[in-house]
Amino acid sequence: MPSAATNRDDSTVGSPAPAGPTVIAGADLLPPVQPTPLPTATVWSVLFLIYTGIAILLTGYRFLDDLSRNRSGTFGIRSLEEVTGVYTAFVLLPLVFRAADLYLFRPRRLNWVAIAFCHLAAGIAFSLAHTYLMAITRQILSPLLGLGRYDYGIMFYRYPMELSNDLVGFTSIVCLYYYFRKFRLAQAQQLAAAQLKTKLAEAQLENLRLQLQPHFLFNTLNTISSVMYEDIKAADLMLTQLSDLLRLTLRASRTHEIPLADELQITRLYLDLMQKRYEEKLRVNYSIDTALNDSLVPQLVLQPLLENSLRHGMKASGEAIDISIAAHRDNGSLILSISDTGVGLGASDPSAVLGRGVGLSNIRDRLAQLYGDAQNFSIANRPSGGAQVTLRLPYRTAQRSQFAADSSTWALLESASSAESQLAGGDSAPLPNASPLRPLSQDR
Known about the structure:
The chain is of the alpha+beta class. It is about 55% helix and about 10% strand. The protein has a six-stranded mixed beta sheet with strand order 1-7-8-6-5-3. A hairpin with a 2-residue loop joins β5 and β6.
């Protein structure tokens, strides 16, 4: 079996983890957040329906109790008592919620003794107001409903009598309000934590993407520079092709994933540029399932692998190198592989190779950020010689991003191809199995 190194997540031996925080340790790290206010009309409509239901249940309970004691004709007075008792409590709810906010949700939390004292004081105030409102409303409504004058008894004793019931009711309301507020605050904090974690992950991905582009540009310009002293016309043509490649890359950089067909378009432009440098020493073969054209892959995931094959796979004897690019689907995974007939890994530790240079380590980190444990990145020696890199990604599809054709650019590519033939004296052959490049539109 050939030696191989596999990367899952970002635990590769000999390679540092990407800098920057990736985990939210807890809600304490977040700035204070408040839940989105609920619609006022909806909240109070629901509470009104709840209190109406309570009034109906209590009226039925009291009336049936009278019937069980052979007391008839009490439905009207029982309805008056329970409806006024429930709805006067409902009217006081805004004050109850406000009081609870003052001693339960202060910026600086009170100790339990202070909370208990404030709660008791607020409960007594609630009971006094509730009892007074019940007395007033019953004395007003009873004659209007034909029930005669309502006798509420001696108020000096009525206030402490109602206090016991009102304290239980007040405490129940405050407890429900407290736990409802805490639940909504916890939801808001979880949402804020999830949004912050997403923003951190996106920032890391963007940092990795921006790290790769200068690396790619530097190495390509270095390749063009090496041709400049040998063939100025060829170098000039390579600069034109580089501008097309950069324009295409920048247009695709609006997202971290692009369709495989677009990634292959970038790959073909890059290999066509490298063909000017290596000429007949570079042969490329494609084995791509066309049904996978719309599958999503990380942007610029193939170019660093190809560059690695060219820089480290070329034999010292100058022998030609064959590079094969393949893509197929394995159940729910997309398998991408790049193999070459170069020098291979030799005696090098395959695990260390994954962390070598910017390109491979960048791919490793981006795959870990995008897919976590759902991805696999491995490199191995081929039994017949050379090396092979394999990427396993989750299979996902999206609408193709179309690089629309433009007549002026198509003419530019045609003239570039004609100039290349003239430079080679008409003897050069096209790359084996390489599909023609799709034309690029000019940026607007």
